[in-house]
Amino acid sequence: MILAHLSLINFKNYAEAAFDFDPNVNIFTGLNGQGKTNILDAIHYLAFCKSYFNPIDSQNVRHGEEFFVVEGIFDNKEVHDKIYCGVKKGQKKVFRKNKTEYERLAEHIGKYPAVVISPYDKDLISDGSEMRRKLMDSIISQYNRAYLEDLIDYNKLLRQRNSLLKYFWENRTFDADNLEVWTIQLVEVAKRIHAERKNFVAQFEPVFLAHYAAISGNAEDVALEYTSHLSTGDFSDTMTASLEKDRRSSYTNVGTHKDDLKFKIGGHPLKKFGSQGQQKTYLISLKLAQFDLIKETTKRVPILLLDDIFDKIDDVRVQHLMKLVSDHNFGQIFITDTHSERIAHIFEGISDSAKIFTIKEGEIYEPQRK
Ligand SMILES: Nc1ncnc2c1ncn2[C@@H]1O[C@H](COP(=O)(O)OP(=O)(O)OP(=O)(O)O)[C@@H](O)[C@H]1O
């Protein structure tokens, strides 16, 4: 699927704008704060019904206005889908495909897959394990619906078990049989989640390593390490061993809600020992592996949204990255850069066609065709 057209009304710093896109490469250039990333975010709305950057829809309405509209047309040989997203302050978001409103936004997710690479991804390295679990969950859920159901069930069971522990603690009581009912169910779902995450990391890591090696020119030894309470011993026994602690803390201390995907460089934590360029290379490689896995498992080619990806990486890595882009079939790419000449030069020879849009204060200047 190709995003052929995008139109915006009152979206962030755009009053009104319309774009006809190239099927291969679309480049947005301009100085800082002009609205380049906002275009990628509008595309993110069309793919995921929400912003990549700001979860509060109303804050994406242009200052002083009451509503925004983002519309796009996705094309391929057979279909011509018109996607509409409208947000009016104080009202429910309206999301339509070809004039039909979705009952649940979740039905739309995955139909027009997209992968974003942005400076905001550094939270994956700096933040706690929750971000990295979300990364695993969001990729696996795109190709495995049963996994998504398991995640929902697990969270429900966990909340119920924790409430019960809290009730026991507050009322100075304990009912082992009652707790056991929740524990048995939790253990069962946790085992499935663990097996699926393990399976995912086994597929994902080699793809990630290949991208990292290609971009860095084999310069560093990196690894992904999946850690879980379920990796050692039988999980039922681990739960039993944790029971006294759980009762004292009114909380379930072990389970897949504590899993992590550890980022390593030279055997050490990337967060502490990776340079900014190495961290950026790591994040780009993770996202490209995400792209490959979604493409392979869903048989749909995601749109690639690249925000400021050249920042902090040296020229050698930029060359390797661009070689990778040219050798790999990435489908449609949207990319932002503050250096119009650099980006135009980089894409010369990579793609048969590319459109360059110059953005200034939420206005678009005539695209230059390569
Ligand atoms: N709701 C809004 N209403 C009006 N303007 C907004 C709104 N939200 C964000 N902006 C403006 O959008 C601009 C930022 O746009 P964007 O992040 O797309 O910039 P950019 O061109 O990608 O910049 P950089 O090169 O620094 O990454 C800022 O000037 C910001 O004030």
Automatic annotation (TrEMBL):
UniProt family annotation: Belongs to the RecF family.
Organism expressing this protein natively: Cryomorpha ignava
Principal location class: cytoplasm
Keywords, sorted A to Z: ATP-binding, Cytoplasm, DNA damage, DNA repair, DNA replication, DNA-binding, Nucleotide-binding, SOS response
GO BP term, example: SOS response
Binding site for ATP: 30-37
Gene Ontology MF term list: ATP binding; single-stranded DNA binding
Localisation: Cytoplasm
This protein's GO CC annotations: cytoplasm
InterPro entries, A to Z: DNA-binding_RecF, P-loop_NTPase, RecF/RecN/SMC_N, RecF_2
Functional description taken from the UniProt entry: The RecF protein is involved in DNA metabolism; it is required for DNA replication and normal SOS inducibility. RecF binds preferentially to single-stranded, linear DNA. It also seems to bind ATP.
UniProt name for this protein: DNA replication and repair protein RecF
Domain spans labelled RecF/RecN/SMC N-terminal: 3-342
